Amino acid sequence: LGAAVGAAAVVTVFPKASYWPVWQVWWFADALGVLVVAPAILTWAGATRRSFQAWGARQMVEVCVLFVAMLVVAQLVFGATSIPVWSVFDFPYFVFLFLLWAALRFDPPIVATASLALTVLLIWNADQGRGPFIVPGRSVHEHVLALQAFLAVTPLSALILSAVVTARRRAEQLLAEYNQRLEQQVAERTQELSQTLDHLALATSE
Fold first, then answer.
1. Mean pLDDT on 187-193
2. Which pLDDT value is given to residue 178?
3. 102 and 161 in contact (C-beta within 8 Å)?
4. Are 78 and 92 in contact (CB under 8 A)?
5. What phi and psi values does residue 85 have, to the nearest 5 degrees?
6. DSSP letters spanning 85-103
7. Which of 39-48, 80-89, 167-176, 181-190 has the lowest mean pLDDT?
8. Residue 173: what pLDDT?
């Protein structure tokens, strides 16, 4: 609905603009906001201070290394106006390895923030006319759609993986807590039974 109204407004103000390409770009931009910006806001809003207080210096250093390495590699891949020197950096999905690293090692807020930072960097490079999605002969909206499709796949996959890993960690934590409570209850019942047997032995002796 937002894309339809916005595209209609653009076509009204700029009659030379075509409705369908404007609607496509607008719709994908809204969808990308839902996929990238909203998870960053929601995960940080739901994060507890306790989950980050347990972090040590090693984890903080790892997070910093993750972000710096991801942004440097992303700039090498998407900031180049020609073919990169290293052939491995010619593959755009190479940066997904860093999101995979974040999803397997850290909580969803870190993954969502990494996705948002990567998105901002890629959009800025595309705006400057750099990156593998800027192909001569294509229209501007085709460049934008290619970039948005890439950004829709990579952060979404990382966020889904992060959610699955986090749910598994929580399930394992709940199972460990349940087993601990069960062991405590068994110990208490065993102690009560031992006391009862002692009382029974004393009563029998009397």
1. 90
2. 92
3. no
4. yes
5. -65, -45
6. SSGGGG-GGGGHHHHHHHH
7. 80-89
8. 87
Task: Tell me the average pLDDT across 114-133.
Answer: 82
Question: Read out DSSP for the chain?
Answer: -HHHHHHHHHHHH-TTS-HHHHHHHHHHHHHHIIIIIHHHHHHHHH--HHHHHT--HHHHHHHHHHHHHHHHHHHHHHS-SS--SSGGGG-GGGGHHHHHHHHHHS-HHHHHHHHHHHHHHHHHHHHTT-STT--TTS-HHHHHHHHHHHHHHHHHHHHHHHHHHHHHHHHHHHHHHHHHHHHHHHHHHHHHHHHHHHHHHHHHH-
Separation of CA 10 from chain center: 33
Q: What are phi and psi of 81, to 5 degrees?
A: -90, -10
Amino acid 27 reads: W
